[in-house]
Design brief:
single chain; TIM Barrel; two-stranded antiparallel sheet; globular; binds iron/sulfur cluster; Radical SAM domain protein; Radical_SAM_STM4011-like; rSAM_sf; Aldolase_TIM
Length: 287
């Protein structure tokens, strides 16, 4: 069996302080961070022990994980396991990148978000160019606030053509945006319109809970990050029995890490193998 897992442990802190983000203001003690590290080690041990299955993993931390050595080493370990096809992580790309050389880079991928208010564009760009030089797959992206338009346009010009630059639609801001802003975002990211919807999902078939699950630091399995009800625990001997067809119980789904698994949208055709790290099949660089 192949299973994709979106892992979110106990980490809830970040080295940036984005205005719109609740994790920007949080603190964690050394004890809490040690717990996160312990949970991550246990999770990776479990992946290794379940060698009869094949896994793709996306880390979706509530905060920045890659500044902590245990996430870097976790990716090194995971990408070198024979039963792991992919290990990817959402990051602000502020960390050093030398550790990627110890990974199996064919299996490593980064979802790298540019935060113009927290990092200078040239520093972020250099990090992207370093990933390119080191042959690491990644998607770059920016939250779609019109105030970032100049930085986004410049970044698109500077990034290599083979790098996809996604724009995350700020759903509640969309009605206030001009057609010019919407056209601008679509010119940068041809897939931007896909991200602008709340997709009807109630009673629709979704891979979440079947071929993709979310797992927290204690091993609780959920269908996805958006339905709180656990469906099992990976540390129970019969964990596989929780995986089956289920219809979505939420009214809508609006986040890439969720709706890409809604069957009727057929977004597996758009993203293929890059569905977790948000890299489309087609090269969507600058025109
Ligand atoms: S970089 Fe990401 S996690 Fe950190 S404060 Fe900004 S939005 Fe939040
Ligand atoms: S449609 Fe979204 S909310 Fe519903 S099960 Fe799938 S990922 Fe979860």
């Amino acid at each position: 069996m192949h299973l994709s897992i979106l892992y979110r442990g106990s980490l809830i802190i970040c080295n940036y302080g984005c205005e719109y983000c609740p994790f920007a203001k949080k603190q964690q003690s050394a004890i809490e961070l040690a717990k996160d590290k312990q949970e991550l080690t246990k999770f990776i041990d479990w992946i290794e022990q379940n060698h009869q299955h094949n896994f793709s993993i996306l880390f979706t931390p509530w905060g920045e994980a890659l500044i902590h050595p245990w996430y870097q080493q976790g990716l090194v370990r995971l990408t070198n396991l024979p039963n792991v096809s992919k290990a990817a992580i959402q990051t602000n790309l502020s960390c050093k990148l030398d550790w990627v050389e110890d990974c199996n880079k064919d299996k490593l991928a980064l979802w790298a978000t540019f935060h113009p208010e927290w990092i200078k564009r040239d520093r972020y760009l250099n990090q992207c160019l370093e990933l390119n030089r080191r042959n690491v797959s990644f998607s770059a992206g920016v939250v779609g606030f019109p105030k970032f338009k100049q930085e986004i346009a410049a970044l698109r010009q500077e990034l290599p053509n083979n790098v996809y630059l996604w724009i995350n639609a700020v759903k509640k801001e969309l009605p206030k945006m001009s057609q010019g802003d919407l056209d601008f975002f679509e010119a940068i990211d041809p897939l931007f319109p896909i991200n602008t919807h709340h997709y009807p999902s109630r009673d629709r078939s979704c891979q979440a809970g079947k071929s993709v699950i979310s797992v927290d630091g204690e091993g609780n399995m959920r269908r996805c990050h958006f339905i709180r009800q656990p469906i099992g625990n990976i540390y129970n001997s019969n964990w596989e029995s929780a995986l089956r067809d289920r219809l979505c119980s939420n009214e809508t789904c609006h986040c890439h890490i969720g709706y890409v698994h809604l069957d009727y949208l057929e977004l597996d055709k758009v993203f293929g193998e890059g569905i977790l790290e948000r890299i489309p099949v087609a090269t969507l660089g600058k025109n």
